[in-house]
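Researcher: Next sequence.
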Amino acid sequence: MSKLLSRSSNLVLRNYAASKTIVPCRRQAECWPKPEYGPMEVHRSNFLNGMKLAAASPLGAPICACTIMFQVGSRHEIDDELGVTHFLRAGSIMSGAAYSRYIKTRVLHQCGGFLSCSSDRQTVSYTLRCPMPVFPELKCYLLDCGVRCLFPHYELDDIKRMVREDLDRRTSESHVMDLIQKACFAGPLSNSVYCAEGRIDSMTSETIQNFVETLFRTNICSVGSFGVPFEEALKVASHIDCGRTERPPYMCMSVSCPRGGYEFFDKGRGEMTYVALGVPGAGTCDTDCFLKHAILAATLGQPGSSPQPWLHIADQTPAPPMTTLAEGDPFVNIKAFNISYMDTGVWGFLIQSDAKKIRCLTLKVNEFFANLCQKISIRDIDIGKKRLKLGAMAYTDTCERMAENLALQNATCCPCDGPRHLARMIDAIPPEEIIQTAGVLSTKHCSGQLAVAVVGDVAAAPDDSEMCIF
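Model: Next structure:
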């Protein structure tokens, strides 16, 4: 027995020594390519039925994600359909035509997968995240969502409780950002992404199914994947609507008009107050104009805000010119935001402060808004470009974001192969055009298109009549 063990151990050592001499370590390191920011390669394809596909092939990603996005949101809700997209977002894993809710939940958790749904005023996205080796087995659960979901009434009761919990858990910042879009437009874009409390009990399975079957079409569907082989992504896209091989007719979308309204939600005296000021911005149909608004928002941004997630929320490093209005108060947060849809958008400022200072701060920001083109310099714009490019690189930290980003690029017909491509587009815009864009926004502010939304102590915040003095 001892001789046999010694012979086998010597054989292992000889094989190990031979492998070290044949393939040096330096040669192994050189055979790997040097990746840049973002995916290594993006494959794009268009189907005859109008569906679009974008698949990114990264270098050895252990986790992959695939997103199916429909250009349908709360702006398409009418009459008794108001609040349907909130139910779709909460019921992403409901029973479908092939698998029950129990089977989906059990198998996905066993395999390390996760199925989610996100929605806004223009899109509804279903995303599957899982280890790459098990994606061929789990993609059927992603296909069983959306059009193939049955929305049974016995599961809808549980979803209603989740919808009520969403209303209770939503933050004041997300609430005021929803209200500013409602105050800025008259028309479909004024529909909220949340279901109203009084409409939860009246929602039925037939209403949700009718909404999905009518509006979820292939010509407004896009698929984005990250880490998934291109052949598997093609299989997912080809099985979304197997019975439709021709391009369906386009939907007629109603136009939303600016109204410059005032919306509020009172939380009581002395509560932390959020005020949003906004004017109509730019849509994604005009890429250059959209990037100008995004650069301007990054120029006036503040560290610790959502466009810059790489910094700690308690980081109060001065970032002019907006931090000069806060006067060093660590409990005051002032930042610019830019929300864009296909045809239009909202651009403005968000102010967070306690009830004692909110009135004075809001009037200061309002005056700053009215004279925006005079408050920024070319140096501020250069810093804003760097912030935006760094934010784009930091946003690609998860496979879900990359997959949703690729699907959104297909939906908006604005392809971008990665942050380096976006950085070149940002650098190509001269600062003079951004200053001109700031002047256009100030003109909209002074021409009666300013919208105001308040969440918190409404009595402490100025009303809409005081905001129009400029």
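Model: Confidence is low (pLDDT under 50) at residues 1-35, 303-313. Residues 41-238 form a domain with the Cytochrome Bc1 Complex; Chain A, domain 1 fold (CATH 3.30.830.10).
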